[in-house]
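Entry for the shared binder. Reason: the reviewer on the internal report wants the predicted structure included alongside the sequence.
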Amino acid sequence: MKTRSQTIKEVNQMPPYTVEIDFDEASSAWKLNKKSQGNGTYTYKCMATTKQGNPCNRKPLNECDFCKLHRKLNRL
């Protein structure tokens, strides 16, 4: 016969589950809005794209995700 504490332990045990995380994909997604400064440090970069379709590499303003030239995009 099982005691109360033994039955509680059985109820609280969760079945194991698998976690599949693609760390390479997660790392590249994390680096999308950052610019490497070297030495393992990163700074944020502007989230806008230029007229040629390239990402803007300027430093964003403190209060938004866009640089001085693209800050009007934040209001849209």
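Summary line for the report: The chain is about 20% helix and 10% strand.
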